From TrEMBL:
GN (gene name): tlcd4b
Membrane topology value: Multi-pass membrane protein
Listed name of the protein: TLC domain-containing protein 4-B
UniProt keyword list: Membrane, Transmembrane, Transmembrane helix
One Pfam family per UniProt: TRAM_LAG1_CLN8
GO cellular component: endoplasmic reticulum; membrane
GO BP: lipid homeostasis
SMART domains: TLC (SM00724)
Amino acid sequence: MDMREVYVVAGSFVGFQLFFSCISPVLSSNFTQGYGKLPPNKLNDWNSRLVSTVHALIVGLFCLYILWYDDAVNEDPIWGDPNMVKLNVAITCGYLFYDLVLLACNWSTMGDMFFVCHHLAALYAYGFVLTRGVLPYFANFRLISELSTPFVNQRWFFEALAFPRTHPLVVSNGVAMTVVFFLVRIAVMPPYWARVFGTFGTPAFERLGLAAQVAWILSCICLDILNTIWMYKIARGCFKVITGKLRGRKVDSKKTSYTNNHTD
């Protein structure tokens, strides 16, 4: 790993921690009065999710830029020039280290083994990108999934501020979250794996060695399993919200009050 990537990982770790501790509280309190009324455990979660959104936008947009304009990576997905991809991956690794530390320090209120497994699998695979400069196209392609994160976090923000689930903004965000999550995490699986299988047996694939091959394939399988589980949960929640809103309209048409108690 070059010193540039080391500095980016460390800088990202420190930067995201500063955003969590200093910048997010100031921005959030000025943006909404509801922030100051949250209990301490939800304040941590709020700040964490705002950091997550910032990271997702930086990395996700950078990922799209690389996919559209980095010809070297697109032409040689295993051994193409990894410089821009390594920068993007280093930012993500810094964020993942920050988030793991945050989860460990607040495990009783924020701990989630799914996220720990997700982070460790990603770090294991991205370690090969940073240390050996291999698989730049595939590493960058996986980062497309970050584009769904702002919608997932916005759903939580609405819930923390006690927006009813039938509120138009909540419903719109829920539908957008479901659609984007599907597009960037589920719909991309067939073309991604088709490109993966297309490398099997090639000299470039053989040059990777067994360790990198196993890290690449197994981490992708684990991440896709987790994404499928999350997709199921998100789709089920979206269905409940939409059908609940439709039921609410029917009840309103009968001049009967409708209450959403958020029990699902």
